[in-house]
Design the sequence.
């Protein structure tokens, strides 16, 4: 039976095999497909990257220039430092503070009671 | 506009005129450019200085695409140096080939964005960012001083 089939295909075999080869050649290779996708996604990412850069450089820099919280924060910090310093000084100059006790000991050692 | 892929400029001769003529023709800022000075061997530092001088004197803007330098030297105060091709950002390492329709449309969009970047006053932006950074560094210093005072105060109790 299989011999009969082979006989029927005689003369056509080259054509069929050639067609197969042709089909294989015309199909883009997997590598080429992957390259295509790679390039497309690269360009998409590049477009997004440029968008982000643009946003930082134009919008954010405008905001930083015109709405900089520095002055308010600086004022608050200066005030906090001043208040904390005053509190610290008050604590340090109390009669029973560790610093006063230490100083008392030093003076006692140096000049006597 | 060309595809934003690495363009390599090899420095074979460490002479001001030769380096400058190569850099004049390089698409700095329009494409990520890699200046390879490794071939200069003992003269790498001189080559780097000449590249830096070119950028400084001609006020070259390496933006939105940076200029990278391949060198065996460990660092440079102003240039971004890399030891080998493998150390460079892989993002721009793609094989160049003709684009298809879809990619061309996307590339046109990218080109439009690249052009709009050129309209940004970069020196003004740099100034704003630098001033913002300096001010906030100062705030950070003050805050750490305040934390230090608070620590002492808490240590004293009461």
Sequence:
């Amino acid at each position: 039976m299989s011999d009969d089939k082979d006989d029927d295909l005689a003369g056509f075999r080259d054509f069929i095999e050639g067609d197969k080869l042709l089909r294989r050649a015309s199909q883009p290779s997997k590598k080429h497909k992957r390259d295509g996708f790679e390039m497309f996604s690269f360009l998409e990412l590049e477009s997004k990257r440029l968008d982000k850069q643009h946003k930082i450089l134009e919008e954010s820099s405008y905001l930083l220039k015109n709405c900089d919280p520095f002055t308010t924060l600086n004022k608050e910090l200066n005030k906090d430092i001043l208040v904390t310093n005053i509190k610290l000084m008050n604590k340090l100059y109390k009669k029973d503070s560790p610093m006063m006790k230490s100083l008392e000991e030093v003076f006692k050692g140096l000049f006597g009671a | 506009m060309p595809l934003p892929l690495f363009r390599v400029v090899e420095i074979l001769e460490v002479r001001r005129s030769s380096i400058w003529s190569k850099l004049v023709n390089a698409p700095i800022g329009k494409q990520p450019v890699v200046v390879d000075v490794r071939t200069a061997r003992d003269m790498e530092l001189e080559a780097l200085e000449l590249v830096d001088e070119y950028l400084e004197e001609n006020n070259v803007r390496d933006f939105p695409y940076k200029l990278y330098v391949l060198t065996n030297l460990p660092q440079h105060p102003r240039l971004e140096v890399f030891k080998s091709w493998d150390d460079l950002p892989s993002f721009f390492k793609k094989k160049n080939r003709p684009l298809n329709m879809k990619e061309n449309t996307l590339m046109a969009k990218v080109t439009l964005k690249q052009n709009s970047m050129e309209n940004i006053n970069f020196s003004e932006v740099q100034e704003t960012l630098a001033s913002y950074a300096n001010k906030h560094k100062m705030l950070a210093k003050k805050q750490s001083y305040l934390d230090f005072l608070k620590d002492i105060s808490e240590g004293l109790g009461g």
Notes: Chain B has four helices and four strands. Chain B touches chain A through 39 residues (CB under 8 Å).
